[in-house]
């Protein structure tokens, strides 16, 4: 059970004093593949985007502060037990992004979500093989961006190959792809309508948790780095994440960018990037490398 923290209580008191509704979302609202990546076989490398400078927080912006507090209240080791287990080497995964901003603009939804428990299991044929998809049922606490315009209190099914049975209560920032959408977040008319309520992570860089000190980290990336990096085999994953060994931008660009931010700045960048796409197609990023 998450421990109460004095600063969390303070945030909630500030919210009450300012008469701010915490339930409202911020405005503007497979090769081998990650187990939660797109089912399409077309590899897409997203172009690099200019990294925005984090917007300085107004002390009265209780929405972001409270979301960050919720994320920090989930112990790192519990978050890792859920998300780090989703690791299959991500070489050849269908979606790849160079920045937080680009991943935000192309996602169907970006949310701060909390796991309610396990969801349905289904069996499908992919590439001539039978694949079993498990899932987690996730409640949206804050909807930060995306074309799906989810609301606080909405529940979504997030599919993966292995859904742990002790994931309840874990909070994370999730960059989601609706199974009915293409890689730009637009509805694909060739996909059955029943896929509209089913989501997956956009890729191995599509989930972030709090390291315990207000720094966003990607559990899947960190688990892969520890496995590949033979210099730290003596460390547990949580110890490795707290070490000085950080993701390299040329290898895990989004994770590397996030490591240099606070969680509040990370959330602000997502909100800013998402607000630029409301009612308009995603902009073309400068310095394109690869195909859209």
Assess the beta-strand content as a share of residues: 15-25%
Q: Indicate the mean pLDDT.
A: 75
Percent range for helical residues?
Answer: 25-40%
The radius of gyration is 18 Å
SSE series: HEHHEHEEEEEEEEHHHH
Q: Specify the structural class.
A: alpha+beta
Helix count, DSSP H or I runs of 4 or more residues? 8
Shape descriptor reads globular
**End-to-end Cα distance:** 43 Å
Largest sheet, described in full?
5 strands, mixed, barrel
Q: Which regions have little confidence, pLDDT < 50, spanning 5+ residues? A: 1-55, 277-292
Care to count the β-strands?
A: 10
Q: Oligomeric state of the chains?
A: single chain
Going across the biggest sheet, name each strand in turn.
Answer: 3-5-6-8-7
Task: Using brief descriptors, characterize the structure shown.
292 residues, two-stranded parallel sheet, single chain, alpha+beta, 10 strands, disordered N terminus, disordered C terminus, five-stranded mixed beta barrel
Q: How would you explain this protein's 3D organization?
A:
This protein has 292 residues and is α+β, with helices and mostly antiparallel strands. Helix content is 25%, strand content 21%. It has 8 helices and 10 strands. The strands form 2 sheets. The protein has a 5-stranded mixed beta barrel. Strands 1-2 form a two-stranded parallel sheet. Helix 2 packs across helix 8 and helix 4 packs across helix 8. The longest helix is centred in the N-terminal third of the chain and has 13 residues. The protein starts with 5 loop residues before the first helix and ends in a 17-residue tail after the last helix. 44% of the residues are buried.
């Amino acid at each position: 059970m998450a421990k109460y923290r004095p600063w969390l209580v303070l945030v909630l008191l500030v919210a009450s004093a300012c008469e701010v509704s915490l339930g409202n979302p911020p405005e503007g609202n497979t090769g081998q593949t990650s187990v939660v990546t797109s089912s399409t076989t077309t590899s897409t490398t997203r172009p690099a985007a200019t990294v925005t400078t984090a917007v300085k927080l107004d002390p009265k912006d209780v929405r972001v502060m409270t979301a960050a507090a919720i994320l920090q209240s989930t112990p790192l080791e519990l978050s890792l037990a859920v998300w780090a287990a989703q690791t299959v080497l991500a070489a050849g995964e269908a979606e790849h992004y160079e920045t937080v901003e680009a991943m935000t603009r192309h996602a169907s939804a970006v949310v701060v979500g909390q796991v309610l428990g396990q969801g349905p299991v289904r069996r499908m044929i992919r590439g001539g093989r039978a694949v079993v998809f498990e899932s987690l049922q996730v409640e949206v606490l804050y909807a930060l961006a995306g074309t799906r315009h989810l609301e606080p209190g909405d529940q979504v099914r997030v599919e993966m190959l292995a859904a742990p049975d002790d994931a309840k209560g874990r909070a994370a920032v999730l960059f989601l792809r609706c199974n009915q959408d293409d890689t730009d977040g637009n509805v694909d008319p060739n996909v059955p309508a029943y896929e509209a309520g089913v989501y997956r992570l956009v890729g191995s860089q599509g989930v972030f948790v709090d390291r315990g000190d207000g720094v966003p980290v990607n559990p899947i990336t960190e688990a892969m780095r520890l496995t590949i990096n033979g210099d730290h085999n003596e460390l547990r994953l949580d110890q490795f994440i707290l070490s000085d060994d950080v993701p390299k931008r040329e290898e895990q660009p989004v994770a590397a960018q996030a490591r240099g931010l606070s969680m509040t700045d990370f959330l602000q960048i997502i909100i800013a990037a998402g607000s630029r796409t409301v009612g308009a197609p995603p902009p073309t990023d400068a310095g394109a490398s690869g195909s859209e």
